[in-house]
Amino acid sequence: MSIARISDMDVAGKRLLVRADLNVPTEGGRITDTTRIDRFAEGMRPLLARGARLVILTHFGRPESNELDSSYSVDKFRPALAEALGVPVRFSDVCADESAVILSHQLANGEALLCENLRLNPGETANDPGFAAQLARLGDIFVNDAFSCAHRAHASTEALARLLPAAAGPLLVEELDALGTALDAPRRPSVAIVGGAKVSSKIAVLKNLVQRLDAVIIGGGMANTFLFADGAPMGKSLHEPDQIATVREIRRLAETSGCALHLPQEVVVAREFRAGADGLITDAFACPPDAMILDAGPEALTAFQSVLDGARTILWNGPLGAFEVPPFDVATVELARSAAARTRQGHAVSVAGGGDTVAALNTAGVTQDFTYVSTAGGAFLEWLEGRTLPGIAALNGAAAAA
Fold first, then answer.
1. Which of 149, 165, 144, 147 is nearest to 19 (CA)?
2. Fewer CB atoms inside 10 Å of the end CB: C or N, the chain?
């Protein structure tokens, strides 16, 4: 893709209309995790230093109406944003109005303006051309720096890119480069670790990965369904009996493509799903009728680690078991540490994404050791599926038009 990068452009004195994703977690009106703000600001600081004038657009939550509810206002983000950017941040209580346009023109070089929550206007999610045209008046160059929103054809991600000179922001470029390295042109052998509860939620992901990579390790409830298709008793384990045909299709695709599928041949079962419950290590085909599979066993973990030992690219989405409930976090945590060690040693590029995956890596204490960890959710999954993301396609189209 021939997408322009804002870092390569002359930005001095230009109003950069930046689509960010500052949809951070809050509790009682206070931010509980500033990671998204900090990562966004890291890429914006050099642009401010070069004389850019930032006009920042973001959404927050999913307001049920366009009536201003203070709980959905993004004004609360200003202190954290100003601290991260290192400059004062002005605020517009609307995101598309004459008053916002005036404020954008009042910015001096190196200053920033945050506009009110995009989703308080129904034109945002409707991808309304009129609303996008109003937003376009706020800037001279459109900058998309929100990969996590790129799978949505909204006014601020899709339509706006066709109304102004458009470029990818630093964070978006970083994400595209990392995902491209892991999936489009991986160093081989390439291995994916795919876990989670249901095969049905990741059918397209699995079909795409087995046709692109050398091996896929399958864990979690998804592995249960694969084992069930092989005749393994499930007891009370989470599995999807109606997905046997899908499992067989994925296996056919993997065999045709030469991709090796790895399942846990040993599992940890328990009769209660609670923290501290007694676990029993057993063969994957010997789950008792009154028990449930909650993790991969030690022998399975060793086998998975041996798969990673030769990997030069590791792509991770989803835990291997019920990692949020100890002691059923062992396989996920230990395999994460193995992947991190291989990355630290320079033997592999590792890319991970998805909410549960990020939480699992945090639990293992190895998030910083991975080559790249995506904070995107739906966009990351759709990328793994091989789908074209509207926000990226719009930037590519803008580059082609230019």
1. 144
2. C
- C-beta of residue 53 within 8 angstroms of C-beta of residue 17: no
Question: Do 205 and 318 reside in the same domain of the chain?
Answer: yes
Catalytic residue selected from 5, 198, 312, 344: 198
Based on the fold, state whether residues 95 and 200 are members of the same structural domain.
no
Q: pLDDT tens-digit profile of 19-54?
A: 999 999 999 889 999 989 999 999 999 999 999 999
What is the pTM (predicted TM-score) of this model? Answer: 0.90
3-state secondary structure (DSSP) of residue 262? strand
CATH number at residue 307: 3.40.50.1260
Range of the domain at 307: 176-370
397 as an active site residue: the answer is: no
If asked whether residues 212 and 242 sit together in one domain, one would say yes
On the CB side of 79, how many CA atoms lie within 13 Å of its CA?
4
Which residue is catalytic, options 61, 180, 235, 378? Answer: 378
Q: Which of 14, 15, 19, 36 is catalytic?
A: 36
The tally of domains found in the chain comes to: 2
